[in-house]
Amino acid sequence: MKFKALIGTSILAMSVASPAFAQNAADETERDAFGGEIVVTAQRQSERLQDVPIAVSAFSTEALEAQQIKTPSDLQLTLPNVTFTKTNFTGASFTIRGIGDLCVGTTCDSATAIHLNGDPLFSTRLFETEFFDLERIEVLRGPQGTLFGRNATSGVVNVITAKPKLGAFEAAAEAEYGNYDSMKGKAMVNIPIGDTLALRVAGIYLNRDGYTKNTFLNTRIDDRDLYSVRGSIRWEPTPDTTVDFLASYFHERDKRTRIQKQQCQRDPTGILGCLNTRRDNSPFNGNATFTAALTSKEFLATQGIPTAFALGSLYGPDVYANTTIPADSRTVNTAFTPQYFTSELTLQGEIEHNFGPVSLQVSGQYQKVKLDSMQDYNSNVGNRALYAGGLNTLAFFAANGIPTGLPAPFPAFVPGSAAYFAPVAAAIIPQGPNGPLCTSLPEETGFGSFGGNKICDATSLQFDRSNQYNTSWSGEAILSSDLDGPFNFLVGGIYADYHLTENSYYVNAFPIDYLTGVLGAFNSFANGLPPSFLATPFFRNNTDDLKIKSYGIFGEAYFEFNDRLKLTAGLRYNNDKKAVTARSTLASFLTPFSQTGDVFGSPFVGSFDADPGTPGNQIIQARSVKFNKLTGRAVLDFKVTEDNLIYASYSRGYKSGGINPPLQPIFAVPESFKPEQVDAFEIGSKNTFGNGALQLNLTAFYYKYKDLQLSKIVARTAVNDNINANIWGFEAEGIVRPDPNLVINLGFSYLNTKVSGDEFSSNPRDFGGGRADAVIVKDITNAANCAVASTSGNVAGINAFVNQVNNLINTNPDINPDPAVTTRVIPGIQPGAGLQGTTPFPSDGGIASTGAFGICGVLSAAAQGAFAPLGLNPANFGGVEYFSAGIPVNLKGNKLPQAPNYKFSAGVQYTINFGDGMSLVPRVDLAYTGDSYGSIFNGSVNKINGYAQVNAQMQLNGTDDKWYVKGFIQNLFNSSSVTGLYITDQSSGNYTNIFTLEPRRYGIAAGVKF
Length: 1010
Description:
Strand 10 (170-178) and strand 11 form a beta hairpin. The protein is 9% helix and 45% strand.
């Protein structure tokens, strides 16, 4: 029997344009799959829908329109065990069967492999645009580590564009208008050039007003202004040869936000910023931040700097104390208007030749991606009145210099000292302490406001920037057989090269400019250096260069024992190499105001070390890793009848590991993280009954997951670790067509995920690990948190220990008997910090520990007995253990993030046919996504409640489908449900960024076809 190799690209197409019903199952004409079978030519080979022994769903372009699947986010509403959400750093995550992109960083790979016409994409912005002129979209659930390439541990999303048609002129256009003054246009033209060549050009343009109201500036943000154009050429020089070329370009520039909202259960102590029980529409406590800590009178006192320079006290009111957060997720208060830009150029080519018993397919592609996004970091406007004292002091020192405190005739001010403060005042308060406040722009030289690169406003601005520039290319060759007899094969190889030349995440805020200017002035003056500031005057985590080289060699063999029983077996060898140079800077080294070029040319840059693990001071950290893995699959399928298939499969998936970025301050975290590996077992059944009146597909699966990559924030930076997990679930997809004109499609899934072993990690929301015998400490020198705990359960003892350490910091006595020489117990710290003792958190805050402001390095030394001679012996307090990155808790049994327990979807459409050939098709879709968690630590504060979405549409089709008019509504009940969340770090206040569904949209559209 002639055999076609399985690639996993059969289609559950959903077309409303050409209904058909009760056709013979052997009829291989493409038609409405609501009625039963469909055979679609895939990118690699062909397979009848119900013969595919894997879980796969796909949508034709008509299906996408019918179900109002206009963006990738919409895909999740109809697919079992699939979720989609935006993520924190301009990215997005498909999660399939509980496996998603929990890894954050430039060296992370996506768990869901994104393909365009079968070729893998790197860092693609493909899903920024809306879908247009597609042949279909395929979503394969489960590891696809044999044929579809690298890192497909959760599955594959394969977007297949419409190809040029030979010998036929075709054209289509659609115009749409909707609420938010939305205007969208799509068009396509297919032009035959002779008998063997055709050209197809398609494009989309979208412009709409913002979904979100900014009450502070009385403007709207979160708009869209984008276009995308695609050109394709197909050449068939012989009946056995097909050559395809594709070029596409996408461009967007608007005021879109990456993060919809920030939520927080406000912490009145300021030690955490946000508490651990719930997510409120409340401002976080600004005293928990880096900027508050290093501009506080408590910190300045430890540096011997006059406390009159302080912008506040850590025990006083914070800048957000009297602010409110709008409850509406589409309403914000911000003084900074977001900016969003992205573009992507993609070039593809493919040659396929049929040699008779075998065929060869060679393909390749090139990508160039640019991305740049800025938005308010705290989504709030603080009270600058708290800064008045410090700003007045800076202006005074800039005009006069440092007071000597000496009586006449001695000079009242140190001669020449004003020159150290005047450049600072000129840069950040050019019109005086009551004028605009200037904040550094996030730029590559590192000078910021001190080099004239700034933005000035009446408010104290804080914003971030995420940017990336990368190129990539790949080439793949596949040789497959189509032999008579029971045996067939497929062999292939792929090579991919990815080069990232810039990736930075910046955080800019006026208080950072202030502290880097003031601290730099005092530091350079005290050491007799030229007037300088501390560079960089913003936080910048910079990947300067990343190279990834990957190749795979794969093959599958197919053996048909008879017409009903078939075995598939495949193997793949994967090889990945990654090399990265990176650094993280924030107030890291002195740079003279007179410096030119960039700050890393500073004569004092030698005090900065980007790589403490390497001897000497390194300007940048360089790391490389290599991974290789053997993966594969085996499938046994049996046809009970021509319309009923059962199968069982085993597959192994692999995703390469990576390198954690450098941290500031330095914490003990793994330098790299391991590859992921998943062993997946699946059984399924695909059934068609009643000559197409009912189609029912069932799947059950069990995953054994090893070294699942998991991200958390440490010291303002995302770092990754590995855990093990077990996953199992069930999926059902059905199509019911009791009448040729009535179609009902149903989907259901259940998912259970659990961390399988004893895995310990610290919860960023609770560094005390739920222990009452622990104290969480906010470090006033960098705003990172640490913790100490009793080794004997002595609650009173651990609190007394922290209180005495803080008292030691406050007094820091001189232990040198020589009165002419001052030698402090704690080097580099001046007495007078005024640190207070431990304090309890609110009873409803979900924090069992107490908290305190302090200095973690001193606590660490004290816990190791460094101050025992002064009466601070840890043993006297019941024993003390120090935790630099929080007290680990056991994650065993916790559910994985983005893994809803249940999903359900249903759609109903009815075609009303008129006598003149016209038809009216109303359709309603309902999707419900169950509860899930946004963090591996679970708990009510991380819970994402289940939500429902309803879409409706009515379309009038003209005779022979030459034109149509439709009205639509998406998100009928205007749900603003949360789809994902991300917890920021302790030095930013521990607030939660949330991502939501788009609001209700409605409009009308009309289209024509030629």
